[in-house]
Known about the structure:
By secondary structure, the chain is an alpha/beta fold.
Amino acid sequence: MPPAGPARRTLLALGTGALAAPALAQGPNPGKFPDRPIRLIVPWPPGGSADAQLRSLAEISARALGQPVLVENRPGASGTLGAQFLTTQARPDGHTVGQMHMSIVRRPFLVRTPPWDPVNDFSHIIGLCGWMFGIVVKADGPIRSFQDYIAWARANPGRLTYATSGIATTNHLAMEEIAAREKIDIVHVPYRASNEAAVAVASGEVMSVADSSAWAPLVEGGQLRLICAWTAERSPRFPDAPTLRELGHDMVITSPYGISGPKGMDPGVVRVLHDAFHAALMDPANAAVRAQFDMPLEYYPTAEYRQFIARRAEYEQAMARRLNLRID
């Protein structure tokens, strides 16, 4: 946790640990790939923005691949159970891939025994898009702006609760950074997914949610209020919500994600998957899903995506050291 400012508290615990990676199997002949359905592991419950975008991607890419692309939800452990499966059980034949996101890149630097190397223990295929994050409160509550949010936290140390989709997620660490800068004591309440967290705010279980835009329908429906967005510019969908930059914090947070597979995949298979996923990403139907959740396009081809993951791994390691972050 950050050394500056009062300590923040986190409710609930997160188990860790992973099995050693099995011996790699020989990759398939890419000319015959795929010869059966492909599993796309989504490490969140159904219903969230990433789940919707990846389900659309799976449906569209199946047409080019000639095989179904079946979404398999594996929620829990801040979205890292899919990575655990890819590194310990999945064969590198291209028929099992999963979402690669920042919590997977970050996790090895938060635990005593790193479960994987985020750069070298995966076959990185394609970068897709990011999220629009923001802080949301109950519409009929006492907090109506970001300034109100900070003032309430200062007046009520240790009582302002905020939900995220998990411990050590990008949005959790961003809130830790904001709390350290503002010198406030707030309480983190992790949920399994951003849509569950948004509902928890609407029902009064927690006071706020800091997460991706699964909260958008509840904001548009009048149950919740968006008090700030973490994008570079104001969202056209929510033009009244200021950005963090406008509020004095030079922070832009989109947390780009993509698709990766087990270590050792055949380059020809990776190319087939990249081309099918890229075509699906650019399809108007997938663009419509991204627009629904205000998800910025963050496309990287295979080589560039691996380089991006390597850069992010260096950044996340430095951040974990600077903030003295540990989850075990």
